[in-house]
Predict the structure.
Amino acid sequence: MGKSLVIVESPAKARTIARFLGKGFEVESSIGHVRDLPSTAAEIPAKYKGQAWARLGVDVDHQFQPLYVVPREKKTQVKKLQDALRGADQVLLATDEDREGEAIAWHLREVLKPKVPVLRMVFSEITKPAIEQALRDTREIDERLVSAQETRRVLDRLFGYEVSPVLWKKVRPRLSAGRVQSVATRLVVDRERARMAFVPAGYWSVAVDAAAPDREPSFEARLAELDGRRVATGRDFDDEGRLTGGEEMVRLDEAGAGELARGLREAELEVAEVKERPFTRRPYPPFITSTLQQEAARKLRFSAQRTMRTAQRLYETGYITYMRTDSVQLSAEAIAAARRQVGELFGDQYLPEQPRAYRGKSKNAQEAHEAIRPAGSSFRLPDEIRGELGEDEQRLYELVWQRTLASQMRDAEGTTTSVRLSARPGGRQATLAASGKVIRFPGFLRVYVEGADDPRAEQEDQERLLPPLSDGESVSVRSATASGHSTQPPPRYTEASLVKELEERGIGRPSTYAAILQTIQDRGYVWKKGSALVPTFTAFAVTRLLEQHMPELVDLEFTARMEDELDAIARGEREAGPYLRDFYFGAEGDGAVAGLKELIGSGWEGIDAREVCSVVLGSAGPGPDQDVAVRVGRYGPYLQVGQSDRRVTIADDIAPDELTVEEALRLLASAAEGDRPLGNDPESGKPVYLKSGRFGHYVQLGDPELDDQGRIKKKAAKPKMASLWPSMSREELTLQDALLLLSFPREIGRHPESGEAITAQDGRFGPYLKMGTETRSLAGHEELRTATLQRALELFAQPKAGRRSGGSTLADVGTHPRSAASLVVKSGRFGPYVTDGTLNASLPKGGDPATLSVEEAVALLDARAEKLREQGKDPSVKAPRTRRRSSRAT
């Protein structure tokens, strides 16, 4: 009897599915894509190397035919699949049910070329009933979805490979452009521009703590009107600090607000008006990919990548349905499971009479046909599976479970109360306002409250109690305070709010958002300050170049229309070839537009690199050549005044809205001081200087040797140099500090048994002790100052924490929730990393070892393990240590 070969994308998914299939099935993994466009020149087959289009990997002159190759690292896996194909009487391609999954299935068929029937097997959850149903409902590969995904891949290749070289030549090398990545970067840059142009406005407010006789609670009321004019609040000022309400508004200053507060302390308040209104809040729809990313960011502090990695693991192990979807619909089975569980947990009074149905915004069903929900026909309670999941998986599963149940619960109902109070402080007519909210029936709020980037928005679902009040009664004032305020610039995007913005504008697709956010950070266009996304000055330069010389490529509406075109291809309403031709060569006839080839080829050499790479901060004084600007150079950003030599290098991760003209001039003045002599070394008599370099301040002992023509001798010994420690400042550095820095490496004693010298040194990867060929890391630079022979002997008595077992321990994180292994952060050659003793994972750039949580550590290790599995390696086995081959000529 033959067998059925089932192929999925990941080993984890293969292991789970194999449990539900009988002996007649063999389940293998493709470990992602088995074919793609060539990523390097070495991957281009020899017969195509001479072709002009081979660099692109797309033959633009022949129907945009893509050149697919099997990457070197996938050849072993393809061979394994070919071997598994022998003896099979059918092939079931069970890759994910979205466009990319369909494309992977198509590539598998094209590469393996089976002689037996090939069928497509799709499911939205990995449970036994779902797998059995998928076996009964197999179908052919959907060529329309394949065409849409191939068009997207070709489109992205054309965009990236044609635009990126322009950035290399006009901004700096190794930059990249992308169809969605560049638009996402522009959104972040535009928000920072708004912050830089923002002018804060100051204003004052007055609030009282009021109480009704013999009734609790007391409540806050705020001054709303004064002498018939509304009191200005923050929302009444524009971004340039101007009051928008004109004469109809009054802007309180400190003196006026203080006087009113004093008058209100002695005043009697009278209830002028009480209004009560009922309200109803409907539950939120179940999660789709983008809303899951947003809520996980707000509630769990997960990055988009971390959310998707965790959701992928939950899906592949059978806990949730497919996590790449833009459908808010639930199956009849899921609705029944949710309603049944609501009734069991909260009672039938929390169930609406009819099941709830939701409609999404997407016009296309290219993603999965159901929202993200707990898998199965009955939902497992979070407490029931607590011991089965890691911390991240547990928290994300509970979030999905809560949202799914809430979507099938009754509305929340309550009453809002608004009260107007009148008083006459100092003979002026004042009106104060207070509001309250009472939830009469919590409905879905019993389970779930949606998060918000602004904490004040999240408070809308919370009760605010007011005592019973009636028109005309008196209310006493317990206290009155005046407070000063300043308007705030528009908030920076977070990952959650940027995903929301992209989704609302129709840019990108749910399955791409995590990758987009990671790409703009990896490419150096955006960095994180807390949870906020901050653009670098490199991002400003790239965005400005594209806006001025290729505006269509970063036009928000144009990019959204591209998504609509791709959706139309997926629905079979448009052909891929004509669309790609219009995009690349341009559309003719009515509404003719230039294509990408024309945009790139029409005089980009004439782009003024200096102009697009400049961000003007302001003026240093009168005159046309006094602009203070940040310029992005080949080696990073620097400050310059006009065309002068007044310049200084700055870090690329400085927040642009914080770099004011005043701060820029201070940095320039500091650099203009040049080398600062600190004094002479008492031993050698040589001068000691404080200098500034690209990588910060440093001290130098003596001057370089010069030849007869005043040039530095090539073979002469260089002056000794040493960088300042992080705790040292340029302004306070003394000659004694400099001599201390220059004293290293310094012998602190000799080993009493071996007689070997022990030295304290400051190296590339931090301070350390050295004895012969043995080294031991020190905790910090200050320990260099205090290092003693006794301390050194204690460290050398301990086992060496080498590269194999890790460097010095920087932080003890805790215990792994699944394996009970100790999680520690160690110092490594390429930065800090977390390890469980078997697996190592680097911390993200800028990550603080001291604040790393257990769940974050586990997520990093799980991501590393998954990457190793994709490479066909076993993450539970330590990689053998290999000797690096020297690149030096012998």
